[in-house]
Amino acid sequence: MVLLNANYRLTVTLHDIDAAGVMFFAQVFRYAHDVYEQWMTQQGFSLAQIVREQQFALPLVHASADYHAPLRHGDVVDVILSIAELKNSSFTLQYQFVPVAGQSVNSINQVNPPAVTVTTVHVCIHQQSGKKRALPNELVNVFNGGR
Amino acid sequence: MVLLNANYRLTVTLHDIDAAGVMFFAQVFRYAHDVYEQWMTQQGFSLAQIVREQQFALPLVHASADYHAPLRHGDVVDVILSIAELKNSSFTLQYQFVPVAGQSVNSINQVNPPAVTVTTVHVCIHQQSGKKRALPNELVNVFNGGR
Amino acid sequence: MVLLNANYRLTVTLHDIDAAGVMFFAQVFRYAHDVYEQWMTQQGFSLAQIVREQQFALPLVHASADYHAPLRHGDVVDVILSIAELKNSSFTLQYQFVPVAGQSVNSINQVNPPAVTVTTVHVCIHQQSGKKRALPNELVNVFNGGR
Amino acid sequence: MVLLNANYRLTVTLHDIDAAGVMFFAQVFRYAHDVYEQWMTQQGFSLAQIVREQQFALPLVHASADYHAPLRHGDVVDVILSIAELKNSSFTLQYQFVPVAGQSVNSINQVNPPAVTVTTVHVCIHQQSGKKRALPNELVNVFNGGR
């Protein structure tokens, strides 16, 4: 598990909440993907450019979430991104949604346990054929912290 | 204003509701578009096919909603679709979100007033150039009830 | 695995699709929950009523999805609901998203394999205290097909 | 029209895009509300707190958007917030979605015209009765720039 030195802070919005008064479970997947997209862009891998260039695509083959505690309207949450597994043609990302307790939480050593943990598995395919291919070296380097 | 004989029933879901306990205002635009897409498909104008064939596109240039009464979790609502204006290269649709009071509401003569009224204005453009063009005759016929 | 005799048909909408041209992965969780809510209502367990009565709640503690094939704009999909596990205070639902190939698919024996499989685990808690409790007998009966 | 000195930058995400390859029209309403909620919080009016305290609510009675140019995946957009009208018990906000052309756009004098303009009208009501009431003085002061 390599921490990607990526930390994104979000505030639970009015419309994230459902009729039961807590964040609707599916919202964490949208937030996780937004963190993924933002991190990739910061590493030089704009998803918009990847889609446009049509050399490869990184579709999800698996997504899961474990909900440990409810998130409520106005909660401030840090999303801590790490890479859980790196294979020849796929990678697994983990996102910990850690509530911020009154003060800034900028390290993996924060006291708060995550309220939600999300995992996504992406596979690398040729955009046209849809067939599996090896991850581009530049992307492997990024995951290895080689940048 | 021509009633398009289209009536779609929806039930307000758990996740349509926001932290204030009522349907989040932006949800009506998604529902309106789903009704539009379903109606178009039933008339032989699948949006998927239109996008694929790349002859024309029908982007929105305007959308608005007036909220008369809140919608709550579990409310059953009929969406009544009508065409408010038909021009050479654009059309205006109106969607009335009418709560169903204990029984079926299948006509424009229902007792309940709409909780929300949505209006969308679509313009017809060449898919490639983005320039305005006349609406296809077949689509004009559909709006005129000529089918 | 008990098939709940529940079958819901959906059509992939314009806005379900993302910039990569396929259904955004997180949408299946919204659809799964809508199927769950509709099925529960049909069994006499309106989620709106459950929330209002505040006797118990059924929050998710886990959700996952496996993506076997992409879903595209206009695809017609049957969602087949079954109960994978029933415990004293929790239950696990499975949703198979099966593309409909030109004709109706109404049985578990359909030819098409699922494009996506979703799993959700719900735990029963006291609404006020948040503490785990046994599932109501009436709900257990429903899951056992006792209705 | 009073500029509220509020400027929020967003990047159009993969899932904001629809099957037609541009941002789905309804997304701007979600973004507008997120800007509204963030701005209110920064002025000391947390919507979470307002909902919790149940003294007043600020539901929307009208929302509209004019789409001047499509927004595409990866576009960077500044949302410029201003107050268009302030009445005894209601206020009208305007949000200009201005694409950022290669460089920072931090003033109302930017060269780019807005791609989308959104308007929302909020009315102040008693949370319990739902009846119209005057806006709290503190909120009027904020809109008048008195802070």
From TrEMBL, chains A, B, C, D:
<protein>
    <submittedName>
        <fullName>Acyl-CoA thioesterase</fullName>
    </submittedName>
</protein>
<keyword id="KW-0378">Hydrolase</keyword>
<dbReference type="InterPro" id="IPR029069">
    <property type="entry name" value="HotDog_dom_sf"/>
</dbReference>
<dbReference type="Pfam" id="PF13279">
    <property type="entry name" value="4HBT_2"/>
</dbReference>
<dbReference type="InterPro" id="IPR050563">
    <property type="entry name" value="4-hydroxybenzoyl-CoA_TE"/>
</dbReference>
<dbReference type="GO" id="GO:0047617">
    <property type="term" value="F:fatty acyl-CoA hydrolase activity"/>
</dbReference>
